[in-house]
Design goal:
The protein has a domain of about 110 residues: 50s Ribosomal Protein L17, Chain: A (Alpha-Beta Complex). It is built from 6 helices and 3 strands. It is mainly alpha-helical and about 190 residues long. Helix 1 packs across helix 2 and helix 1 crosses helix 4. Strand 2 and strand 3 form a beta hairpin. The radius of gyration is 30 Å and the shape is elongated.
Length: about 190
Protein backbone atom coordinates (compact mmCIF):
# COMPACT_ATOMS: atom_id res chain seq x y z
CA UNK A 1 0.00 0.00 0.00
CA UNK A 2 1.05 3.58 -0.70
CA UNK A 3 0.04 5.20 2.60
CA UNK A 4 1.62 8.65 2.76
CA UNK A 5 3.62 8.19 -0.46
CA UNK A 6 2.63 11.10 -2.64
CA UNK A 7 3.87 11.85 -6.14
CA UNK A 8 4.45 9.81 -9.25
CA UNK A 9 7.46 7.58 -9.85
CA UNK A 10 7.43 8.28 -13.62
CA UNK A 11 9.01 4.88 -14.29
CA UNK A 12 12.41 6.03 -13.04
CA UNK A 13 14.78 5.53 -10.16
CA UNK A 14 14.93 8.29 -7.55
CA UNK A 15 18.07 9.87 -8.99
CA UNK A 16 16.76 9.71 -12.56
CA UNK A 17 13.43 11.19 -11.46
CA UNK A 18 15.20 14.05 -9.69
CA UNK A 19 17.34 14.74 -12.78
CA UNK A 20 14.25 14.68 -15.02
CA UNK A 21 12.35 17.13 -12.83
CA UNK A 22 15.42 19.36 -12.65
CA UNK A 23 15.76 19.41 -16.43
CA UNK A 24 12.05 20.15 -16.89
CA UNK A 25 12.29 22.97 -14.34
CA UNK A 26 15.28 24.54 -16.10
CA UNK A 27 13.53 24.30 -19.47
CA UNK A 28 10.40 25.95 -18.06
CA UNK A 29 12.38 28.77 -16.47
CA UNK A 30 14.32 29.41 -19.68
CA UNK A 31 11.52 29.08 -22.23
CA UNK A 32 8.49 29.96 -20.06
CA UNK A 33 6.55 27.14 -21.75
CA UNK A 34 7.29 23.44 -22.33
CA UNK A 35 5.46 20.51 -23.92
CA UNK A 36 5.69 17.17 -22.11
CA UNK A 37 3.52 14.32 -20.86
CA UNK A 38 0.73 15.20 -18.47
CA UNK A 39 2.22 13.18 -15.60
CA UNK A 40 5.64 14.86 -15.93
CA UNK A 41 3.99 18.28 -16.24
CA UNK A 42 2.03 17.79 -13.02
CA UNK A 43 5.10 16.60 -11.13
CA UNK A 44 7.29 19.39 -12.51
CA UNK A 45 4.62 21.91 -11.55
CA UNK A 46 4.92 20.93 -7.87
CA UNK A 47 8.69 21.43 -7.95
CA UNK A 48 8.66 24.68 -9.93
CA UNK A 49 6.01 26.26 -7.72
CA UNK A 50 8.19 25.69 -4.65
CA UNK A 51 11.30 27.01 -6.37
CA UNK A 52 9.53 30.16 -7.57
CA UNK A 53 8.09 30.78 -4.10
CA UNK A 54 11.56 30.44 -2.61
CA UNK A 55 12.97 32.90 -5.14
CA UNK A 56 10.09 35.34 -4.64
CA UNK A 57 10.53 35.34 -0.86
CA UNK A 58 14.30 35.77 -1.22
CA UNK A 59 13.89 38.75 -3.55
CA UNK A 60 11.41 40.36 -1.14
CA UNK A 61 13.87 39.78 1.71
CA UNK A 62 16.71 41.23 -0.41
CA UNK A 63 14.73 44.43 -0.99
CA UNK A 64 14.37 44.95 2.77
CA UNK A 65 17.94 43.99 3.78
CA UNK A 66 19.74 45.50 0.76
CA UNK A 67 21.90 42.35 0.47
CA UNK A 68 21.55 39.24 -1.67
CA UNK A 69 20.09 36.12 -0.10
CA UNK A 70 22.97 33.86 -1.13
CA UNK A 71 21.63 30.89 0.81
CA UNK A 72 18.36 30.81 -1.18
CA UNK A 73 20.27 31.09 -4.46
CA UNK A 74 22.56 28.22 -3.49
CA UNK A 75 19.65 25.99 -2.49
CA UNK A 76 17.87 26.63 -5.78
CA UNK A 77 21.13 26.07 -7.68
CA UNK A 78 21.64 22.75 -5.84
CA UNK A 79 18.47 21.49 -7.51
CA UNK A 80 18.59 23.22 -10.90
CA UNK A 81 22.37 22.97 -11.57
CA UNK A 82 22.12 25.77 -14.14
CA UNK A 83 23.54 29.22 -13.44
CA UNK A 84 21.65 30.98 -16.22
CA UNK A 85 18.30 29.55 -15.06
CA UNK A 86 18.94 30.62 -11.46
CA UNK A 87 19.83 34.14 -12.63
CA UNK A 88 16.66 34.37 -14.75
CA UNK A 89 14.58 33.04 -11.88
CA UNK A 90 15.81 35.54 -9.30
CA UNK A 91 16.20 38.60 -11.56
CA UNK A 92 13.27 38.29 -13.94
CA UNK A 93 10.62 35.77 -12.86
CA UNK A 94 10.59 36.41 -9.10
CA UNK A 95 10.00 40.13 -9.64
CA UNK A 96 7.16 39.50 -12.07
CA UNK A 97 5.29 37.11 -9.74
CA UNK A 98 5.88 39.17 -6.59
CA UNK A 99 2.21 40.12 -6.21
CA UNK A 100 0.86 36.64 -7.03
CA UNK A 101 0.12 34.43 -3.98
CA UNK A 102 0.96 31.12 -5.68
CA UNK A 103 -0.34 29.41 -8.79
CA UNK A 104 2.55 30.52 -11.00
CA UNK A 105 2.11 27.73 -13.56
CA UNK A 106 -0.69 26.15 -15.53
CA UNK A 107 -1.05 22.76 -17.22
CA UNK A 108 -3.00 22.72 -20.48
CA UNK A 109 -3.86 19.25 -21.76
CA UNK A 110 -3.39 18.72 -25.50
CA UNK A 111 -4.65 15.17 -25.99
CA UNK A 112 -2.80 12.04 -27.00
CA UNK A 113 0.57 11.87 -28.74
CA UNK A 114 0.47 10.26 -32.17
CA UNK A 115 3.35 7.82 -31.68
CA UNK A 116 2.59 6.09 -28.39
CA UNK A 117 -0.74 7.52 -27.28
CA UNK A 118 0.69 9.24 -24.20
CA UNK A 119 -1.31 12.13 -22.75
CA UNK A 120 0.53 15.34 -23.66
CA UNK A 121 0.25 18.75 -21.97
CA UNK A 122 1.83 22.19 -22.00
CA UNK A 123 3.30 23.49 -18.77
CA UNK A 124 3.64 27.27 -18.83
CA UNK A 125 4.24 30.18 -16.51
CA UNK A 126 0.97 32.08 -16.03
CA UNK A 127 2.49 35.57 -16.11
CA UNK A 128 4.06 34.90 -19.49
CA UNK A 129 0.98 34.41 -21.65
CA UNK A 130 2.86 33.23 -24.71
CA UNK A 131 0.05 30.84 -25.67
CA UNK A 132 -2.71 33.44 -25.28
CA UNK A 133 -1.35 35.91 -27.86
CA UNK A 134 -3.28 36.04 -31.09
CA UNK A 135 -1.26 34.79 -34.02
CA UNK A 136 -0.74 37.17 -36.93
CA UNK A 137 -2.81 36.24 -39.98
CA UNK A 138 -0.82 34.24 -42.48
CA UNK A 139 -0.51 35.74 -45.97
CA UNK A 140 -2.33 33.78 -48.65
CA UNK A 141 -0.11 31.80 -50.99
CA UNK A 142 -0.12 32.65 -54.68
CA UNK A 143 -2.02 30.23 -56.93
CA UNK A 144 1.02 29.65 -59.14
CA UNK A 145 3.21 28.83 -56.16
CA UNK A 146 1.14 25.80 -55.15
CA UNK A 147 2.74 22.74 -53.61
CA UNK A 148 3.71 20.11 -56.13
CA UNK A 149 2.23 16.71 -55.56
CA UNK A 150 2.60 13.30 -57.07
CA UNK A 151 0.08 11.63 -59.38
CA UNK A 152 -2.49 11.03 -56.59
CA UNK A 153 -3.37 14.59 -55.53
CA UNK A 154 -3.91 17.82 -57.40
CA UNK A 155 -3.16 21.30 -56.17
CA UNK A 156 -5.86 23.95 -55.91
CA UNK A 157 -4.35 25.83 -58.85
CA UNK A 158 -4.58 22.77 -61.12
CA UNK A 159 -8.18 22.12 -60.06
CA UNK A 160 -9.09 25.72 -60.87
CA UNK A 161 -7.43 25.43 -64.31
CA UNK A 162 -9.37 22.22 -65.01
CA UNK A 163 -12.67 23.91 -64.13
CA UNK A 164 -11.85 26.78 -66.49
CA UNK A 165 -10.96 24.27 -69.20
CA UNK A 166 -14.25 22.44 -68.69
CA UNK A 167 -16.17 25.69 -69.01
CA UNK A 168 -14.38 26.52 -72.31
CA UNK A 169 -15.04 23.06 -73.79
CA UNK A 170 -18.72 23.34 -72.93
CA UNK A 171 -18.92 26.59 -74.92
CA UNK A 172 -16.98 25.32 -77.99
CA UNK A 173 -17.95 22.23 -79.99
CA UNK A 174 -15.73 19.28 -79.22
CA UNK A 175 -13.23 18.27 -81.92
CA UNK A 176 -11.75 14.80 -81.81
CA UNK A 177 -8.00 14.46 -82.21
CA UNK A 178 -7.27 10.81 -83.05
CA UNK A 179 -3.56 11.42 -83.68
CA UNK A 180 -2.38 10.19 -80.28
CA UNK A 181 -4.20 6.81 -80.22
CA UNK A 182 -2.99 5.99 -83.75
CA UNK A 183 0.59 6.61 -82.75
CA UNK A 184 0.25 4.07 -79.94
CA UNK A 185 -1.12 1.44 -82.32
CA UNK A 186 1.71 1.90 -84.85
CA UNK A 187 4.32 1.61 -82.08
CA UNK A 188 2.93 -1.69 -80.86
CA UNK A 189 3.16 -3.34 -84.35
Amino acid sequence: MRHGNSGRKLGRTASHRRATLSALSVALIRHKKIRTTTAKAKEARKVVEKIITRAKNAVAKEADAKTKDVHARREVFAFLRDREAVTMLFNEIAGKVASRPGGYTRVVKLGQRQGDGAEVAILELVDYNTGQEKAAPKPKAKAAAGRKRGPKGKTAAKKAEEKKGEAKTAEEPAQAEPSQPEAKESDSK
